[in-house]
Write a structure and sequence with these properties.
- The protein is an alpha+beta fold and 563 residues long.
- The chain folds into two domains: 170 residues, no CATH class; 388 residues, Glycosyltransferase (Alpha/alpha barrel), CATH 1.50.10.
- Helices cover 36% and strands 17% of the residues.
- The protein has a six-stranded antiparallel sheet with strand order 4-5-8-9-12-13.
- α5 runs antiparallel to α6.
- The two termini are 24 Å apart.
Length: 563
C-alpha cells in the first residue's frame, strides 16, 4: 500500500469511519471485541440494514481476537501492541513490531467479505434473528451478502482477495494530491473518504456516484456533487466530470435540475419526498410537509461555478458544451419557474432547495428571497457568459450579462443599512436573523465598497462571525444561534469556503487565506471531515455525519490551494 493509504489508516477507527470498498454497499463497524456488518441503502437507517450483528474472530482457545490494526484494504485481528497507539489503534511505526498475523478481513468483491489467517481460527457470526454460526477458518472463508441481506458462507482464496483489494486502494491513493506536509495526513484521509463513498447506482449503468455518506446519504445530491467534484478534480478529473454529468443528466422538462439522483430515480418535487422526510417536516411544524400542489426541489445554482472549476484542471471542450447547455436551461428555469412573486428576483420555494434546510431564514412564510440565492444567480450568469466566450465564441452572451446586472440591482435592495447586513424575505416579510447567507453577496465581487467593508467587519467581529473555529452559520449574537443545531450555528466547510472565495473576489485575498487556513485547521482539530462542527469547541457536532463527502472534497481543494 502507498504512504497515503497508511496515513489514511490512522483515522480508520471503524466507528466514525467504517471499513468499506469503492463501489461496495457493505459497511463494517467495530462492535465489542468484534465487528458488525450493515448494508448502505437509500433512505434507510443503518439499524434497518443489519447483515451481521456480530462477527468475532476466535483463537484456538475460543478467546476473541481483538482488532489490532486497520488499513484501507484490510482489518487485522490479533494481540494488540498498545504502545505507540493513537486512540487505541496501532500506529504505522508499531505495525512492524507484530511478529504474526492471526487473521485478516478484506473484500473479495463489492458484495463479499473474505477472512483468512491461522488455520485454527474460528469465525463466529451473529445474525439479526439471534441465531449463531461458527465456521473454521481453514484456508479462508468468504461471506457473500445477498440483496435481501442474507449471508452465504463458503471457502475462498483469501490471498487473492487481499491482493485485489490492496490493488484497488493503491490505484486510488496513487491519485491522492500531494499537499503541504502539515496537511498531507488529513488530505490522505479525506481522499479515502471520497473513494469509500463511491457507489454504483443501478439505474445509471456503470456511473460512479460519490455520495455524501454511505451512512444515511446514499444518492447524488446536486449541491454535494458540485463541491465533491471541485475536490476530486485535483486527483481524478474524469471522476469529477462524472459527478457533474450525473447531476445534470436528468433535468425536468422545464430545465429544473433535480435535488437528488438516487437508485430508484430522482427527487425533483415535494411529491417525490420519502415519507420519513414528510414526517420530519410535520414534527417541525412545517406548513409545507404536505403541500396541496407539488413544490419543485432543487439546489442553489452553483452549476456553472463547479463546471468552470473542473474544466480548469483538465479541459474537455465537447463535454463542456454539452453540460453548458443543461446549465443554461437550469439557470433560465430559476427566473421562469422560481420567481414566485414575479418581481424579477427568484425565491426558494422550499427550504430543501436552499441546501440550508434548517436555517432560521425559513422560520417565516414561504417563498423566501435570500441574498445567497441572489448572489449565486449573479455569479452563475457571469460564469455562463465566460464559459460561452470560451466554448461557443460566436454565441451572444449579452442576455446573461444584462440579467446578472439586473439581478445584482435587486440584490442590493436586500441590504438593510440600519442593521448593516443583507436580509432574507419570507413571503415578502423581512427575516431579521443574522445568518451566513448574508455574507454570500461577497461572491459577486462587485458590491459597493461600504457594503464590502461592513461584511468584512462582520466576518471579523467575535460577537458575530469571527469565532475561533470559523464562521458560524448564524451569528453568535443572534437569538436564533445554537452551537449544535444544523444550519443554526455550527460551522460548515462549504460555507467557509464560499465566503473565503467571496472575500478574495471582493478585494481581501489575505483575509480569504486566513479563513482557508482556519478551515483546514478546524478539520484537523475536529478529527476528520465531519458534516458540521460545533463553533465553540471545533469538534464534531453531536448529530453531524462523519466521513462527509463535501467536507472531505473541500478540505482537499483548500489544501491544494494553500500548498
Amino acid at each position: 500500500m502507498t504512504d497515503a493509504a497508511a496515513l489514511a489508516g490512522r483515522h480508520l477507527d471503524l466507528v466514525s469511519a467504517p471499513f468499506t470498498l469503492p463501489r461496495s454497499r457493505v459497511l463494517v463497524f467495530r462492535e465489542g471485541d468484534g465487528l458488525r456488518v450493515h448494508t448502505s441503502e437509500y433512505e434507510r437507517r443503518l439499524s434497518e440494514c443489519r447483515v451481521l450483528d456480530g462477527l468475532t474472530v476466535l483463537d484456538a482457545a475460543g478467546h476473541a481476537l481483538p482488532v489490532a490494526d486497520v488499513l484501507p484494504g484490510r482489518v487485522t485481528f490479533g494481540p494488540s501492541t498498545s504502545s505507540g497507539t493513537q486512540g487505541g489503534w496501532e500506529s504505522v511505526s508499531s505495525r512492524s513490531a507484530r511478529s504474526t498475523t492471526e487473521a485478516t478481513l478484506t473484500f473479495a468483491d463489492p458484495t463479499t467479505l473474505s477472512i483468512g489467517g491461522s488455520p485454527d481460527v474460528t469465525v463466529r457470526l451473529e445474525l439479526p434473528d439471534g441465531s449463531m454460526q461458527q465456521h473454521p477458518l481453514g484456508d479462508g472463508i468468504r461471506i457473500r451478502i445477498d440483496a435481501d441481506r442474507s449471508v452465504t458462507v463458503g471457502p475462498g482464496d483469501h490471498d487473492a482477495a487481499l491482493a485485489a483489494t490492496d490493488r484497488i486502494w493503491s490505484d486510488w491513493f496513487a491519485k491522492c494530491p500531494v499537499v503541504r506536509d502539515d496537511l498531507q495526513e488529513m488530505a490522505a484521509f479525506c481522499w479515502w473518504v471520497l473513494g469509500a463513498n463511491i457507489v454504483e447506482l443501478p439505474s445509471l449503468g456503470d456511473s460512479r456516484a460519490i455520495v455524501p455518506s454511505k451512512i444515511g446519504y446514499v444518492g447524488l445530491w446536486q449541491w454535494d456533487a458540485y463541491f465533491i467534484a471541485v475536490g476530486v478534480r485535483h486527483g481524478d478529473p474524469g471522476l469529477a466530470r462524472e459527478q457533474l454529468d450525473i447531476a445534470f443528466r436528468f433535468p425536468q422538462p422545464d430545465g429544473q435540475l433535480p435535488d437528488v439522483v438516487h437508485e430508484l430515480g430522482v427527487l425533483a418535487t415535494s411529491d417525490d419526498l420519502p415519507e420519513s422526510d414528510r414526517a420530519t417536516l410535520r414534527r417541525a411544524g412545517s406548513q409545507i410537509a404536505d403541500p396541496s400542489a407539488p413544490v419543485p426541489l432543487t439546489k442553489p445554482p452553483l452549476a456553472a461555478w463547479a463546471l468552470r472549476k473542473v474544466l480548469e484542471v483538465e479541459d474537455a471542450p465537447d463535454w463542456a458544451r454539452e453540460q453548458l447547455a443543461r446549465v443554461i436551461r437550469s439557470q433560465d428555469w430559476w427566473f421562469a419557474g422560481s420567481d414566485l412573486d414575479h418581481d424579477g428576483m427568484p425565491e426558494y420555494g422550499h427550504p430543501y432547495s436552499s441546501g440550508l434546510d434548517d436555517s432560521p431564514i425559513f422560520d417565516g412564510p414561504l417563498p423566501t428571497a435570500a441574498p445567497d440565492l441572489g448572489a449565486y444567480l449573479v455569479r452563475q450568469d457571469r460564469e455562463i457568459a465566460d464559459l460561452l466566450d470560451r466554448y461557443e465564441p460566436d454565441a451572444d452572451v449579452s442576455r446573461f450579462r444584462e440579467r446578472a446586472a439586473r439581478t445584482q440591482e435587486l440584490l442590493w435592495t436586500m441590504w438593510d443599512a440600519e442593521r448593516g447586513r443583507f436580509l432574507a424575505h419570507g413571503g415578502g416579510e423581512p427575516q431579521f436573523s443574522d445568518t451566513i447567507v448574508g455574507l454570500m453577496p461577497l461572491l459577486t465581487g462587485t458590491l459597493p465598497e461600504p457594503i464590502v467593508e461592513a461584511l468584512r467587519a462582520a466576518v471579523d467581529d467575535p460577537e458575530r462571525f469571527g469565532l475561533e473555529w470559523g464562521l458560524p452559520t448564524v451569528a453568535a449574537s443572534d437569538p436564533d444561534f445554537s452551537d449544535e443545531r444544523m444550519w443554526r450555528g455550527p460551522v460548515w466547510v462549504n460555507t467557509n469556503s464560499l465566503v473565503a472565495e467571496g472575500l478574495e473576489a471582493s478585494g481581501y485575498p489575505e483575509r480569504a487565506r486566513e479563513l482557508r487556513e482556519q478551515t483546514v485547521a478546524l478539520v484537523i482539530h475536529g478529527g476528520g471531515p465531519h458534516e458540521y462542527f460545533n463553533p465553540r469547541t471545533g469538534q464534531k457536532a453531536c448529530t453531524a455525519t462523519t466521513a462527509f463527502g463535501w467536507s472531505a472534497a473541500l478540505f482537499i481543494d483548500l489544501a491544494v490551494e494553500l500548498s
